[in-house]
Amino acid sequence: MCGQDVLFLTVNAGSTSVKLAAYRGSPERSDLELLKREQLATGAADPQSALREFVRALGASALGAVGHRVVHGGARFTAPVRIDDAVEAAIGELAALAPLHNPVAVRWIAAARAVCAPQVAQIAVFDTAYFAGLPALAARYALPERAGAALGVRRYGFHGIAHQGLWGRWCLLNPALDSGGRVITLQLGGGSSITAIARGRPLDTSMGFSPLEGLVMATRSGDIDAALVPYLAQQLGASATRIVEILNEESGLLGLSGTSGDMRTLLADPREEARFAVELYCYRIRKYLGAYLAVLGGCDGIVFGGGVGEHQPEIRERILAPLGWAGVELDRQANRAARGCEAWISGAASRIRVGVIPVDEEHTLACAAASLLVPASARP
Q1: Who is most buried in 94, 155, 195, 375, counting CB within 10 A?
Q2: Residue 265 and residue 250: Cα distance in Å, rounded?
Q3: CA pair distance 318, 206, nearest whole angstrom
Q4: How far, in whole angstroms, is CA 301 from its chain's centroid?
């Protein structure tokens, strides 16, 4: 397929929604043309029917590959891989590490393999893969080997496709920096994470063994003392599984405010509980920013992405305003104007460049799929 334009389909399967997209271009290029996007509710969509209708609406025949987002690749999958029966089974076996996501991905993978011709490459792109090379200091927990490495317990990191995409766009916009220099990327949405990247290599990230670790999120608690799990189990008369469910689905902004995990709702809510939830959310992000400035030894840029990061200027200002000591100066007018668009929001005197870059996981998926269609001998 080298040298000719082909069609790439992407399937971004989440726990509550599935995003489909189609791109056209040559496998050798990264400037793929977006043709169509669609978002479906996970529970309401029949995967095979949805995929058939999506492809039919394109009116195209040269489908080259389907790129699937898979949240957890474990220790085995550290790069995009062509899907066969063994790979599909292995992704399913990793469901214990990502019970809300991997089973959904497997259903859509099976559907795509059934709908598409056998020669169409099915390619899995893993959220955890970007963090497979985390330094041991960032990846390991302080556990004995029998309860840690021997069981595959480590900090895997998540949102890797989003963070890689933010870094890639940052590099294009800052060509004078060697591989992007030192940058901190923030993916702030329903789930939120932050990553410290030095010349393309992630040195640390906030999510760990599961997506529960790290920042305060819409319904996830983020960092807690592990001793809380047995304590709450005893106090509430609940199982450890139920406590983890509470930490994942009933905590974070929702738990603190008592009403909502939606940042737009909370910013409009005059109650003290809502105000405190937002303040704690911003404080935890600022705390991680300070830590990652130390990890990187300073940085060249801070990049915001995700639904909250891209659309909520007030949140960005609350996070960044106290960071003058670190050389961050915010252009408040530029920040207020940046809603869902690419923009620079740092002031002229800021020593750290701050930007808003819309996250495009589907484009990253398509590029990864395209790269595997290029023969190894032709790759740079």
Answers
A1: 195
A2: 16
A3: 20
A4: 19
User: What are 25's strand-pairing partners?
Assistant: 6
Q: Which two tokens stand for residue 217?
A: 């999120």
Closest CA to 109 of 129, 74, 84: 84
Name the 3-class secondary structure at 17. strand
Clarify whether 84 is annotated catalytic. no
Strand 6-13 with 63-70, pairing: parallel
Q: Report residue 224 as tokens.
A: 């807690």
Kindly report the pTM of this predicted structure.
0.91
pLDDT in tens, 211-258: 999 999 999 999 999 999 999 999 999 999 999 999 999 999 999 999
Tell me where in the chain the CATH 3.30.420.40 domain(s) lie.
Answer: 6-156+362-378, 169-356
State the Cα–Cα distance between residues 40 and 47, nearest whole angstrom. Answer: 10
Architecture of domain 169-356: 2-Layer Sandwich (3.30)
Its CATH class, for the domain covering 6-156+362-378, is alpha beta
**Which of the residues 31, 46, 84, 127 is marked catalytic?**
127
Axis crossing angle, helix 240-249 with helix 228-236, rounded to the nearest 10: 110
Angle, in degrees to the nearest 10, between helices 272-296 and 313-320: 60
**Conformational region of residue 127, where left means phi above 0, alpha means psi within -120 to 50, and beta covers everything else:** alpha
